[in-house]
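Encode chain A's predicted structure.
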Amino acid sequence: MKPTQPPPPPFPAGDARRPPVRGRLAEGAVLDARFDALAQGRGGVVCVQGPPGSGKTRLLSEACAMAGRRAFTVFRGGADPDSQFVPLTPLLEGTQTDGKPLFDTVRLRALATAPEQRFWLLQELQDQLERAAFDGPLVVVLDDVQWCDDLTLLALRTLSSRLSAHAILWLLAIRGGSSAPEVLTTLDRMERDGALRLCLGPLSDAAVSEIAQDVLGAPPDTATLDVVRRAEGVPLLLVELLHGMTAEGRVVVTDGVARLVGHRLPARFQTSIRQRLYSLSEPTREVVRAASAIGHTLTVELLAELLDRPVGALVAPVQEALDSDLFVEREGRLAFRHDLIREAVADSLPESVRKALRRHAAEVVLARGASLSEAASLVMDSAEPGDQAAVRLLRAAAAELSETAPSAAGELSRQALNLTAAQAPERSTIIAETVVLLWRAGRATQARALGATALPGSLPCEAEARVRLSLARVSSQYDFTEGARQSGIGAALPGIPECLRAHLLALYCLDLGLVGDYGATARAAVDEALRSARQVGDRAALATAMTAHSVLLYYDCDWDRAFRRADEAEDIASEAGFSRSLWVPEALWKAFMLNAAGRTAEALAESENGIRDTQRQGQAAAMRLWLMNRSRVLLDAGRLSDARAEAEAGTAMADELGMGNFADATLLYTLLRVALHTGDRDAARAYAAEVGRMVGDPAILVRNAGSWLLALMADAEGRPDRAMALLDESFTTFEQVGPSLASPDDPADLPVLVRMALRAGAHDRAAVAVAQAEHRAVRNPGFPILAAAAAHARGLLDNDTAHLLHAVELYDGIERLLPHASALEDAGRKLAVAHPADAVPVLGAALDRYNEADAECDAARVRRRLRVLGAPRRRTAPTETVTAWPELTASEVAVVRLVAQGMTNRQVAEHLVNSPHTVSSHLRHAFLKLGLTSRTELARLAREREHME
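Encoded structure for chain A:
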């Protein structure tokens, strides 16, 4: 039979008739199983990982086809190297199978570049995804995740977890070996949450043979297979080699078999791509080369402007590039068939030409109205040192991204600094900008290092003071000691405006209080801050300084004056127009004091108003502070399930807003104490491991709070001696002004400490704690909680029933379930020795309160005491339940009912005046208790139960 050239590839790229995926049967089976689960309402995450050219994109395409056959909604997007500084590009430029966008891109683009909108942007994305999933199963497909921008990565790792109960399957492809920290963090986080990773290895010999037959149109002979094995089972290299062999006439089909002609070794991949490039016409070569320098995707209009040609002149070259399979067309944009092809073409360009093309492209896209961040990606690696226009563009882009993508903004600012000469007058300002951005991105070590070497003496005093103020404001939320250091240095700079000094002094006083310094230095600083604020008439500085003064008065045991001062500060702040919604502590501090005073209803009202105001005004950071406050109030009120949900909600916002000292002292404190009261030892141990960072903190207030948590843990494990050892440093501060245990101080902790010390045989320490409790009560007769705590502590120390029963009476009018229950338990325990019959009702009252609080560990202990006394069994279920949902708390039922009605998390949050994170936490715990995994199952169960009720 006459030899013939093999036919061209039977199914061109993008053709619906293209051959099936070869060598990936196991992966296809996994995807099929996940689609079966999705059809039942169960979503999840699948990460496809492999080296370049391993067939990740092809497998995603096959997955899209599989989903389409099941009538699922499919959304497909992808990243490219030049989109890393353009927030949310993979999501905003992707489309559904019907060509329509999934998201409200106009609204999301506006949020992506607006200040203080990072949190709300994610809420908007979540809400739109929830709505899409209500219409049926949704598959979100994202390719080349290794090139995603910070905000897209944040969305992936948070939304995939938050929406895990929805019928949403996330299919992600990522190049293996990626070392970008943000990418690795995202992958690790998703795997911890249950994501499945599919790793694509080399193809088997059988699969290689099948692909060779697909491309060549006939089964390959042994010699041909020996050659194509040089591709080492990498699909892209394999197909490229086969195409190259065909183009060079090195394979012919004889008697239905593809046979090798000649013995010359095949060209390497890059050489093969270049040879294909040289086979094109000169205009097409120019188009392909220019496109390779610009990026992964681009428009014909951009190419025309870049090459200074009319669009019509590019019709033939672009078509030739498409016909040669170098380009593909996606949603009206041109793209290289694979990035390896683009890289191979780009590598053929001289470096100077490549840089010039990218620099020119930046000018073109800016002239066409592109965002600064989009242009910045072209400038980053093309500008030369001393290019002032590039420096200005990078700085402007960094400012644009500073709120939504601080990590990317920091990289842009650092590059602007690298391009700026050492003697340039603007260099010091750029250093200051970069330091602040690094802080915001959570790169504290780098920020400190750059600031230490560059800030002192490099700026005029006023400019440095303003930078120090910015750094103090940023760091005060995460590192109290650093906040005090920055504001203190700034306030001491000579010749700065008095208004600026007043702000620095006010913040310095506040930070000293957060650190735990309430000595002479803090008192002098407060006096100076108040004087300075009054002198310049700055009401903002005055309100903050007054709050710092209130903190001092509170820890100096002068609670009446502390409350009056806090009221003054809040009034001034409100008059000045920056009330709860801003990062100022006036109303927040008052809410903490109300809670410590046992005025729970007032404290909760303050926090609910704060959350409502900050939600309405879009102040995510301030809202998180109020969530932290409310978690602590709910804990102290004995609403343990609600406290846990609120604390988990605040912790869930760490991705958007970061953790830090304030979060550790409230959220971590709440979570560990709830775990101890409910008997969740695994959770308690996990939280205790995190507390380790607190005991090493430079701020003594943070160290004391951490030591107290670890002591509670040790005591719960039956190691009171270890608990006392952990509190060695705390006991040195008992004679000083300031919190020695939790922060803010909880008076009800002192009886707990006395009991712990007595178990350890540390009578002297118990006596110190009792003296402290009685001193507070005497100084503040108008606060019954202090008298109750003092009576409780004295009753424990003296083993005196009368004092314990007096504490019970005092707690009767105070909204604190757990301290009241504890006093009842201690009184019942004492009565049981001589008057067992009298002990039973007292212990029964303690059990009722522990049950009401959901404090199962404490309730179990009291039930054991009652059994020893021969008391009859009592109902042990928590009192606040709903008939149709006996497993759930009232708060969980409220969420479940609204979700079952079809509301999104955001709609439920607005209805209940909660954050969406709190709703997610309640929902997650409800799912665990009910044994559910999807909203579909929940809706079905709700219909059954509500109908029965």
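The two ends are 82 Å apart (CA to CA).
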